[in-house]
Every structure is written in C-alpha cells, then in structure tokens.
Write a structure and sequence with these properties.
With about 200 residues, the chain is an alpha+beta fold. It has two domains: about 100 residues; about 100 residues, no CATH class. It contains eight helices and four strands. It has a four-stranded antiparallel β-sheet with strand order 3-1-2-4, sandwiched between helices. Helix 4 packs antiparallel against helix 5 and helix 5 packs antiparallel against helix 6. The longest helix has 18 residues. The model has no long low-confidence stretch (mean pLDDT about 90).
Amino acid sequence: MNSGWIYILTNTSMPGLVKVGLTTTSPEQRLRELSSATGVASSFKLEHSFQVTDVEAAEAKAHRILEQLFGRPNKSREFFSATVQDAHEVLSGVLQEFSQADDSPALRDAEKKARIKSFSMACLEFEAELPKAVNANGGALSPMLASYFGSYFAACAATNRAPKMAQLLSGPYSVAILEKAVQIASEFTNEPEDLIIQYSRQYR
C-alpha cells in the first residue's frame, strides 16, 4: 500500500475534460512529466491534488465514481467529461476514507501562518509539532508530512533560520519538500526557485 497524491489536471487542448490520476512523487513533478511529452499540444495545469494513504485504491475508486457520474470518453485513459469544480467536489467526498492519518490541525494552522507570511510563528509551531508527527509515523515522512516540511523550510528561508530536522532534505521526499517550499516562496518573492535552491545547499 503506497501513499501519494490523486491529482486533477486540465489542458486547453482538451476542453470539457479533466485528467485524474495518481503519483507517488509529487503532483508538480507529474505535471512536468506530462507537459513535456511530445504528443501533447499544450501544457497541463494542476487544478487540485489530494494526499492519500493507499494511492492505487484511491485512484481506482475515484475513476469508478467519476465514470459513473460524468462519463469517460476512453476507458483506457484517465480523462473524464467533468468540470474542475464538479470533479473536485466529488473527489473531496470520495477520497475521505484515504485521507492521511498524520494530517494534524496544528500543522495545518502553522502552514496557514507561513502562507500569510507570519514566518516566525509558523516556524515555532512547525518545530513543536513536526517531530511529534514524524515520530508517530515511525520516524519517517509521508507525503503529507513532506508537504508540511516544505512549508516550514520556506518559512526558514524567509527568516534565514536554520531548519530543525534538516536531514529530511536528503531523504526520499526531498523533491516534494523543495517543490512545496518553492510554491510557498512564490507568494513572497519573484525568484522562489533561486531562494530555495540556494538556501537548501547549506543543509543537504
């Protein structure tokens, strides 16, 4: 049973369709892979993603329900005749049973603080809650915890603060962590990739 993400993508070359699939790396990385394919006329856009515990089972259930509700032009492809809003509403309910057990309210609140640039408070809250969540997960990250660590790392970069648990940057979720950090950093700097990459070099 692998954890990962279920994503919703759109493409201007395919009006009226949404692509719903899975990834165990990160939605952003999967987006780049699909958009760089030579057979694609235009790039995909990531609309939503859901972090889940059993990604294969979650995708199978999502596909089954979406096909029943909206139709599927080609049963061998991951496209459905639904709007983004409709697909999101359906998947929000369908995927609840696969939600991450380590999705703590305290970490969600800390992430919100990072997004509104209350970086010092966000860092303090992450540093109090992340070790507990990681220990509860057997000392390892999950996709959800990697996402939270990415938000925390962006807050550290914004305040030039040395991150706790920096060894996690060298683990299997390092790409997902840095992508999340860049996403958060894009809300407060025009060069988020440069900021995060340069900052991460000190701790990898």
